[in-house]
Specification:
By secondary structure, the protein is α+β, with helices and mostly antiparallel strands. Helix content is 38%, strand content 20%. It contains nine helices and nine strands. The protein has helices at 2-28, 63-73, 84-87, 104-113, 117-128, 131-144, 167-177, 181-187, 254-267, and strands at residues 37-42, 45-50, 79-81, 101-103, 191-195, 202-206, 218-226, 230-239, 242-251. The longest helix has 27 residues, at 2-28. The chain is globular and about 55 Å long.
């Protein structure tokens, strides 16, 4: 009877230890308590996703579309005069003053690296004369790229009931934007300084994407945060023959979950990544 009790205790102890190990592994997995929506692609093929087609507010991930349209409509060396509306923008900003003159090139850097709403609005006003007409162009471009669950209401990503997109659509949009060499260059930069054209004022820009310079292989792309959107992130990292694109929407801690998700994608066997055409995401019309 004593023998049986000892054996039972040992068995129970082993079971508890095994359960503890499993729980620890699960707790460390980014897929146990994931963001509200995410999409992970490896070389253009879906690896893992959750609510990737559910509409959510994108916060400053909106600026990916703003930058794309500006690059398609404007030359990088064009001179932008900061508008009153731009100087009054709220939220993340670098402190532009009405009437200051900067190039499209430098304002794009402030928009994509520092997520500056004042720079973003200045570009929208410059490209189309006002933000309202610029938003019309944003939505027209979304339709052309077949972003079927995307609608914009402002250039910067301020919370608004009519502003939404999905992790799926953001992946398509990002791939298109990354085809622009200057876009790809900016989102991979850690820091830079820009100046007004009369050189009286300068602005130091530090990339808000903490993966840049810290996560091996990270080459972009953009962060976004508002009360409604939560913590959002589009990230791309490359190692050897593998490129991973990650979209996170409404995360509790994107800087903890994003590296873990990227690690999982880099460690995944090729067999785990579905290679069928239906799982390949490409913009096919109007791009």
């Amino acid at each position: 009877m004593k023998k049986f009790s000892s054996l039972r205790v040992l068995t129970l102890t082993a079971g508890i230890l095994f359960a503890a190990v499993c729980y620890a592994d699960a707790a460390s997995s980014p897929f146990v308590h994931p963001p509200s929506a995410y999409l992970i692609q490896v070389n253009g093929h879906t690896y893992k996703e959750r609510n990737a087609h559910i509409r959510r507010p994108p916060a400053s991930l909106t600026k990916i579309m703003t930058a794309l349209i500006v690059m398609e409509r404007c030359k990088l060396d064009e001179v932008v005069v900061v508008s009153r509306g731009a100087a009054r923008e709220t939220g993340s900003r670098i402190g532009l003053r009405r009437g200051e003159r900067l190039t499209v090139r430098d304002l794009l850097a402030a928009t994509l690296m520092a997520s500056a709403n004042d720079a973003c609005r200045a570009l929208a006003d410059h490209a189309c004369g006002n933000q309202r007409d610029f938003v019309v162009q944003m939505n027209a471009r979304a339709r052309a790229l077949q972003l079927q669950n995307t609608r914009f209401t402002n250039a910067c990503g301020h919370d608004n009931a009519g502003l939404y997109t999905t992790a799926h659509d953001l992946a398509l949009l990002t791939e298109k934007a990354m085809q622009k060499p200057y876009f790809a260059e900016l989102v991979a930069r850690k820091e830079m300084r820009i100046r007004t054209l009369n050189s009286k004022r300068s602005y130091y820009l530090r990339n808000k994407n903490r993966l840049i310079g810290r996560y091996p292989g990270a080459i972009g792309v953009k962060t976004g945060t508002t009360p409604n959107a939560g913590q959002c992130l589009v990230a791309i990292a490359e190692r050897e023959e593998r490129k991973v694109l990650l979209v996170i929407m409404h995360a509790r801690n994107r800087w903890r979950v994003a590296p873990a998700m990227l690690d999982a994608a880099f460690a995944a066997d090729s067999a785990d990544i579905e290679e069928n055409p239906g799982n390949t995401m490409k913009a096919t019309v109007g791009d």
